[in-house]
Amino acid sequence: MQPPRIQPVTIDNLALPQETVMPNGVRMFRLGGVCNGVVRLDILFRGGYGVQHKPLQAMFVNRMLREGAGSMSADDISTELDYYGAWIDAYSSQECNHLTLYTMSKHFRPLVALLETMVKSPQFPSDNLEVIKRNNKSHFMVNSNKVDVVSQRYFENSLWGDAHRFGRMVQAADYDAITVDDLREYHAMVYNSSNCTIFLAGESDEAMIDSLTEMFGSAPWGMSGALPETSVQQPDTMCGYRKIEVEGSLQSSVKMGFMLPSAPSADIYKFRFLSVLLGGYFGSRLMSNVREENGYTYHIDSCLDAYGKFYAFMISSETDNSYVTPLLNEVRKELSRLVNEPIPEAEVELVRNYILGELCREYEERFTKSEAFINAWLSGEPFGSVNDYIETVRIVTAAELSEIARRYLADTSFVEIVAGDKS
């Protein structure tokens, strides 16, 4: 019997979203297709942490939208969502406030009406705010004893510096300082039709589009005005080693990385590939060395995170307090190998097939495709950049990856953060 012939992994280019500009100027991007009668609606508002006048404003405004709106209480909103079997997720990032609705297509209109009320007429009840402040502060205090959370806070602080809005570390007192007036101020500044973008993915029809247009796209709404400057500037990175004591911790969390200088998109795509080769899958170089050969950790990975138009490279792991120094030494050794030794073609092919396989899995349905295009929009990239990355994965060579390693990893100063018990 002949074994099955091995076929290379293939993935087609993704169909780009179709844009519609509504009568009031709100841009809507639609990614159609059959999704078994389910739809995902994303409503995004530029701003995020970048335009808040006090820490936590953006996060609390988004969180409080579900605590009462129009004539509806928090219980009324929860009851309606439960009745239709729907879910609304709300979160804030450095540059955006994001609301996501998942629902059946047949229930779209009443739930868009609910979302409209939440966005345009939030109550911000003071009693509910006090409860949520206490809960979030308690969660913050618990996390302040988790080495991974602490190391991440200090890593971003070292990347951006104390004066930058992305580098400022939230304090417990910031939770106490938030008031209803702070929420109303931020809501009036950010939540309006001139600052709104919509993504619609899944099984939709013209009646659903008409509902969206009626409720979000017909006439201007909100207090439209120019947002404060939100463009991200190149940070003044505080490189070097920092040890943060977390008393009683059994392990230390290690973060290493740096902010990439401004680079062409093609370099970013190749660096992302290189990051996977180094520490982005179970058989990566870091996993093979630090976990399999030396046993210093259970898991170690590397990733490339976007901050507006800038990208930060980070290597992350947790280890026994006594293994921190040897773990850091082995990571440095692997970085040096990338810079000074040719990358084998066979390893590139292995990583290529792994990435293409992961992309096939991620893009097998409309919702995750929509997320890819949303991420491109947030970073200011054209939608075609999603397919440009796929094409780079298909054709990048070992020699090109070695050149990227020499260009961005040689003679680079790293931020090194260790959070753990003193040792």
**Helix-strand makeup class:** alpha+beta
Q: What is the global morphology?
A: globular
Let me know the number of strands: 13
Q: Fill in the CATH topology of the largest domain.
A: Cytochrome Bc1 Complex, Chain A, domain 1
The appropriate CATH architecture of the largest domain is 2-Layer Sandwich
Q: Uncertain segments of ≥5 residues (pLDDT<50)?
A: none
Query: Fraction of residues in helices?
Result: 40-55%
Mean pLDDT: 91
With strands numbered from the N-terminus, the spatial order across the biggest sheet is 1-2-8-3-7-6
Query: What is the CA-atom radius of gyration, in angstroms?
Result: 23 Å
Q: Please write the string of helix (H) and strand (E) elements.
A: EEEHEEHEEHHHHHEHEEHHEEHHHHHE
Number of domains: 2
Largest sheet descriptor: 6 strands, mixed
CATH evolutionary superfamily of the largest domain: Metalloenzyme, LuxS/M16 peptidase-like
The amount of beta strand, in percent, is 15-25%
Give the helix tally: 15
Terminal CA distance reads: 60 Å
CATH class of the largest domain: Alpha Beta
Model description:
This protein is of the alpha+beta class. The protein folds into two domains: 18-217, Metalloenzyme, LuxS/M16 peptidase-like (Cytochrome Bc1 Complex, Chain A, domain 1, 2-Layer Sandwich), CATH 3.30.830; 240-420, Metalloenzyme, LuxS/M16 peptidase-like (Cytochrome Bc1 Complex, Chain A, domain 1, 2-Layer Sandwich). 44% of the residues lie in helices and 20% in strands. The protein has helices at residues 57-64, 74-84, 108-120, 126-143, 147-160, 172-177, 180-190, 206-217, 265-279, 285-293, 324-340, 345-362, 366-378, 385-395, 398-409, and strands spanning 18-21, 27-31, 38-46, 68-69, 72-73, 87-92, 96-104, 196-202, 240-245, 251-259, 300-307, 310-320, 415-420. The strands form three sheets. The chain has a six-stranded mixed beta sheet with strand order 1-2-8-3-7-6, sandwiched between helices. A hairpin with a 2-residue loop joins β4 (68-69) and β5 (72-73). α10 (285-293) packs antiparallel against α11 (324-340). The termini are far apart. The relative contact order is 0.16.
